[in-house]
Amino acid sequence: MQRSPYDTAAALLPLVGGPGNITSVAHCMTRLRLGIADRERVDDEAVRAVPGVLGVVTDGDGLQVVLGPGAVVTVTAEFQRLLTPAADAAERLAARGAELRAARARRNATPLKTALRRIADVFVPLIPALIGCGVLAGLDGLLVNAGLLPSLTPALAAIASGFMALISVFVGYNTAKVFGGTPVLGGAVAAIVVYPGVAKVTAFGVPLAPGQGGVLGALAAALLAVHVERWCRGRVPDALDVLLTPTVTVLVAGLATLYGLMYAAGVVSSAIGTAANWLLATTGPLAGLILGGLFLPLVMLGLHQALIPIHTTLIQQQGYTVLLPLLAMAGAGQVGAALAVYVRLRHDTSLRTTIKSALPAGLLGVGEPLIYGVSLPLGRPFLTACAGGAAGGAFVGFFAVLGDRVGATAIGPSGWALFPLLTGDRGPAVAAAVYAGGLLTGYAVGFLATYVSFRAGAPKSAPST
Predict the structure, then answer these.
(1) Which architecture, in CATH terms, is 5-109?
(2) Across-strand partners of 56?
(3) Terminal-to-terminal C-alpha distance of the chain
(4) How many angstroms separate the CA atoms of 383 and 380, rounded?
(5) Distance (Å, rounded) from C-alpha 178 to C-alpha 120?
(6) Which of 30, 265, 306, 441 is the most exposed place for a label (fewest CB within 10 A)?
(7) What's the Rg (C-alpha) of the chain?
(8) Is pLDDT at 191 greater than 90 in this prediction?
(9) CA 9, 10, 14 angle in degrees (round to 5)?
């Protein structure tokens, strides 16, 4: 019988030190993220053994419990409810825990990782809307191409396109929120980027175009608004703050957006699109090999977060990102490697059980359970998984050179879950066929490389922890 979200949350709470040891609760697409006051009170192995838990990741200043998409939302809600009665009693300890977390963050976080994490915090909350609208856009395209339901397709197009038309506003709002400004002021300044009236404004001798600069322009505009607002807060008298600070913030950041940031961001956005198209058109297999092969190490280092605004820029500019299908091949290599480990280690019941429980999630693009439960502990299968990802990426890149580019209309899903979001130069059907071929290539090469590596002297079982 499937365990309820409440049962999972109730089982986790004492294993992470109880309510008094929790300083924050959040979640992303697959992980319950907990801030921990005293790390020694957490029993990692017991947490990992809770039914429904797919993996555990130590995050320097906290703990990440991998639960998978969907389940993480409901378990997080139940976990927060369990904490509520103890909130007052734990207030003092939570404050101390927050101080400890901040101290650890200062010691462990590099400026680059901190910046990338904050940028990711801007875009990650937008992923559910990107997925929903992306799926509807794909459905609309299928219906239009098939000539079906002509009375419905305009409505689907409007629903799918509305969010993307205003995504810059959401980016501006989240940017101000993440970087310590007033969210609505960030959204107000970012709204300038998509306002039709900017076509009447001339910058550097050229009329602006609504949407010029896209999400990068909105990000830059909101960041500037945050700095202007902070400057005003420290200088404007309290009696005039409510009037002058918002006015000066919107005026200064707005003028800078119109007469500099939109133009500059437009140049950068165009360069990103041109570079992506050129990369695949001229060096497709090589580009796919590098991107597919290096994505797992980028995830381990947290540097994959730098790709989120690039994906979003490509989606806004071209309707899809050509990079995500290539990067998704890393997950295929991981699945192939895990299958080879399962075949090789016939007598390791515990590891085989882990692989069986994690494979369905891996096929749907949730790779953390296989990474942290199988390939990384064993060592060499992580490298052979990268080889599988490189092969799958080279396969997809090869077809891009032939004119069959594959793109995703949203970010977030990968693996087989990406199929509803696929599109390309020759339509969704061809894109799906090329992508499926890449997945199968990644599975096969990841499996064979891992199988052969065991014969060459790889570890015969996972090291004990």
Answers:
(1) 2-Layer Sandwich (3.30)
(2) 65
(3) 29
(4) 5
(5) 10
(6) 306
(7) 24
(8) yes
(9) 110
Task: Take residue 424 and report the two structure tokens written for it.
Answer: 């390309």
Taking each helix axis from N to C end, the angle separating 183-194 and 167-178, rounded to the nearest 10 degrees, works out to 150
CB neighbour list of residue 225: distance below 8 Å, 6 or more residues apart: 172, 176, 181, 185, 186, 188, 189, 249, 250, 253
Options 28, 133, 232, 386, the catalytic residue: 28
Q: pLDDT tens digits for 155-186?
A: 999 998 899 899 999 999 999 999 999 999 99
Tens digits of residue pLDDT in 91-129? 444 444 455 555 555 555 677 777 888 888 899 888 888
Secondary structure letter of residue 280 according to DSSP:
H
Paired tokens of 331: 């997950």
Give the integer Cα–Cα distance in Å for 74 and 393: 34
Q: Is 28 a catalytic residue?
A: yes
Which two three-digit tokens encode residue 357? 């429980």
Domain ranges of the chain: 5-109, 124-279, 319-455
- The first and second tokens of residue 181, run together, are 């400004």
CA dist., res. 348 & res. 53, Å (int): 20
Residue 234 carries which DSSP code?
T
Fill in the amino acid letter for 244.
L
The answer to whether 419 and 328 have CB atoms below 8 angstroms apart is no
Q: Give the count of alpha carbons within 13 A of 190, CB side only.
A: 28
Which two tokens mark 288? 């796919």
Nearest-CA neighbor of 68 among 464, 398, 367, 465?
367
Alpha-carbon span 413 to 461, nearest angstrom: 31
CA distance 232 to 246: 9
Q: Which two tokens stand for residue 257?
A: 């957006």
